[in-house]
Amino acid sequence: MNTPVLAAVVGAGAEQAIAIVCAVLAAGALVAPQPRLRAVAMALALIATPTLLALHRWDTSSFSVVRNHPAVAAAAAVVGLVSLAGLAWLIRRRPQLFALLAVAALPFRVPVTLSGTTYNLLIPLYAVIAAGALAWIVVLLRGRVQGPAAAVRGLPGAVRWLLAASIVLYAVQALYSTRFNIALGQVIFFYVPFALLLALIAELRWDARLMRLCLLALVSIAGVLALVGFVELATRHLLLNSNLKAANVFGSSFRVNSLFYDPNVYGRFLALVATLLVAAMLWTRSRREVLVATGALVVIWLALLSSLSQSSFVALLAGLLALAALRFSLRIVGLVAGVAVVLGAVFLLAFGDVVHVNLNRAQALATASSGRSSLIQGGADLFAQRPLGGWGSGSFAAEFRRREQSRVEDPAAVSPEDRAVAASHTIPITVASEQGAPGLALYLGLLVAARLLLVRGARRSPARAGLAAAFAALIVHTLLYADFLSDPSTWALLGVAAALAAAPPADPAPAR
Question: Within 13 Å and on the Cβ side, how many CA atoms surround 195?
Fold first, then answer.
């Protein structure tokens, strides 16, 4: 083996080893039994993760400035560290400021292309997480623990352990993936920082005032994003996503995405905010608050319509049904849902052509689901071929394309949609095909544990009811689109639920 090849093999092995170390450190930040141990794991993760990114991208154009102008890079690093230190100082003095900053940064993504893959990175959120981690580490080192210092036990502990196991398993299964770069990106940009996010959120003391401020921040941000979307709709000009711009030119309808790269992610955010806002409305006794919230809901609903995200409409419906079940009667909600399903089926049978869904055609399901049915079938076939270990983390797109090409004599006959696929758009299918039975078991276990954690006390508290309903909406959206653990909303919702479960018996978020 010649020297360049040997160096490449050693480098790849080092990246894989460090990726597993990063995953273990993130898991430690979640489940270590003592706050100080969790802080140490968090500190090491803050060092190891950017080190892994630099190692992976050192020879690429992304790091050309660092390689060719080390003095400039060093000066920029000093400025960045000083800025983080200043933000950490503010958070240390006002710990609840971290929650507000994290909530404000949740929606904002920046598309960045690395190794041929475009990641929509939450760079503002990364900065907030890093500053929050620094603040918490300093507080613990000085022996002045702020907040409940949530213990890792009970249902919150079960959720943390399942999340930690999911991160480590994903990193380990990246070792035999045909798309290690994709798996590495998921670990660096999503799993590790979001694990730190949950750990920090769970350490805060969530009272009624903080809940209210966070909801106001979310609604305000949704209003600003909606305004941007309305401007896009009026001018017929999108700010992001050239592919969507082309689709709007040749399509029969115009979809907006506001400051999001994907209209479905935009719709998901709006659906979650609307669900939380309705939860507050259902428990408040103030007529003024109901009127203000109703006006905000009208704006959010119009913005959601402009996204034309079918998965977000269904997610919002699921969230509202969950709220109705918690606030009123599960039996009534079930009856209403059953009637709605029957009426919907009758409508599709009678007027399916009006909405381009002809149930009498063989390709009706694929057409109605925008090709998702073929992706689901392909993912199920991949799982059947390797049910124990799966094909490796991040490998779905490559293995699905390989499967489709093997089914046709002419590879060019594979549709452009299949060539461009990045996920099955149904999270359990993606998990099963990439990670096999172990990953699927962890996923299902996490859903059960999260459900038990979220519904506890939800009938008596708008905060807990809102969290439970928003999580239900999120899960439904992941069944129709994608992004479960790679969405910070998942971790934020579970983190707040864990903090509330660790709080004193008195409800920290009463009806007002």
Answer: 35
Burial 414-423 (b: 16+ CB within 10 A, else e): eeeebeebeb
Q: Residue 391 is encoded by which pair of tokens?
A: 């094909």
DSSP 203: T
Residue 488 above 80 pLDDT? Answer: yes
Bridge partner list, 117: 114
Residues with Cβ within 8 Å of 295's Cβ and at least 6 positions away in sequence, in order, are none
Cα 508 from Cα 512, distance rounded (Å) = 11
Read off the pLDDT of residues 164-207 as tens digits, 9 standing for 90 and up: 999 999 999 999 998 898 899 899 999 999 999 999 999 899 99
Q: ∠ CA 17-19-25 to the nearest 5 degrees?
A: 105
Contacts of 228 (CB under 8 A, 6+ apart): 239, 258, 259
Q: Are 85 and 78 in contact (CB under 8 A)?
A: no
Residue that the structure tokens 């419906």 belong to: 317
Half-sphere exposure of residue 440, counting CA atoms within 13 Å on the CB side? 19
Query: Is the distance from CB of 151 to CB of 157 less than 8 angstroms?
Result: yes
Contacts of 87 (CB under 8 A, 6+ apart): 101, 127, 128, 131
Give which of 44, 37, 1 is closest to 21, Cα–Cα.
44
The distance from CA 272 to its chain's CA centroid, rounded to whole angstroms, is 12
Question: Do residues 435 and 390 lie in contact, with contact meaning Cβ atoms separated by under 8 Å?
Answer: yes
Compute how many other C-beta atoms are within 10 angstroms of the C-beta atom of residue 349.
12
The sign of the torsion formed by the CA atoms of 49, 50, 51, 55 equals positive
Mean pLDDT of the chain: 82
Q: Which two tokens stand for residue 37?
A: 């141990």
